[in-house]
Amino acid sequence: MEEQVEMVGKAFVDHYYHLFDNDRPSLALLYQPTSMLTFEGQKIQGTDNIIAKLVQLPFQQCHHVISTIDSQPSSFAGGILVFVSGTLQLQGEDHPLRFSQMFHLIPTVEGSFFVLNDIFRLNYG
Amino acid sequence: MEEQVEMVGKAFVDHYYHLFDNDRPSLALLYQPTSMLTFEGQKIQGTDNIIAKLVQLPFQQCHHVISTIDSQPSSFAGGILVFVSGTLQLQGEDHPLRFSQMFHLIPTVEGSFFVLNDIFRLNYG
């Protein structure tokens, strides 16, 4: 069970940042109308608003490199919490940005997961 | 409702790090046997094991300074996700350490909250 949680967390993270770096609008597949994103303190709700925010970020190309992934069951109905740290390299920038991000994944009736909670912060300093 | 989530998150964070910095064993009040802590990748379960880990950290005195607190409802029965970033100053060390931490708070029958999920990471680099 614990191994499965780790596997789901890692597979999700690989999938999420691959889509983010290569086809950002397709991240819409991972959210639902009840999804919440807090991006650098800004609160956004629902798939359409979340994707609009992510697509309008002030860079076209980026590359995430993951440093750590920690996953835990959130204890009801198969939910999984995933905590990620890593760096974000923007095109034309010399230095990558450090970030931390957490996701709360909820099982779907189709046997997959969607992102209910998503909180993103850059780590300055 | 949204304001209440923010208020609970902030009050919890203030309380948690005040206890951590001043009376670490009393953090036991905030965990339960089902609680999970992942500390720098190490998985620990249950109040007793979690407190043993926190009390045995290789420093006696420390001071947390919080930079950001982001809170969201985790959508079932009043649960709240709290995402924290800040610095940790250890006694005798010149430079504070940056950290990120997330908590999943679950309401208790007594009208308070306990920590079901706790993930802690230092932010290097």
Please provide a written account of the structure.
The structure is a homodimer of 125-residue chains. The longest helix of chain A is centred in the first third of the chain and has 21 residues, at 2-22. Chain A has helices spanning 2-22, 47-55, and strands at 31-39, 42-45, 62-73, 80-90, 97-107, 113-122. Helix content of chain A is 24%, strand content 46%. The first copy, chain A, is α+β, with helices and mostly antiparallel strands and 125 residues long. The mean pLDDT of chain A is 94. The first copy, chain A, is globular and about 45 Å long. In chain A, strands 2-1-6-5-4-3 form a six-stranded mixed sheet, covered by helices on one side. The N and C termini of chain A lie far apart (38 Å).
Describe this structure in a few short sentences:
2 copies of one chain form a homodimer. By secondary structure, chain A is α+β, with helices and mostly antiparallel strands.
Number of helices of chain A: 2
Distance between the termini of chain A: 38 Å
Sequence of secondary-structure elements of chain A:
HEEHEEEE
List low-pLDDT spans of chain A.
none
- List the strand order in the largest sheet of chain A: 2-1-6-5-4-3
Q: Looking at the structure, what is the overall shape of chain A?
A: globular
Identify the biggest protein-protein contact and residues per side: A-B, 30 and 30 residues
Strand runs of chain A, count: 6
Assembly of the depicted chains: homodimer
Q: SS-based structural class of chain A?
A: alpha+beta
The profile of the biggest β sheet of chain A is: 6 strands, mixed
Q: What Rg of chain A do the Cα atoms give?
A: 14 Å
Kindly report the average pLDDT value of chain A: 94
Strand content of chain A: over 45%
Helix content of chain A: 10-25%
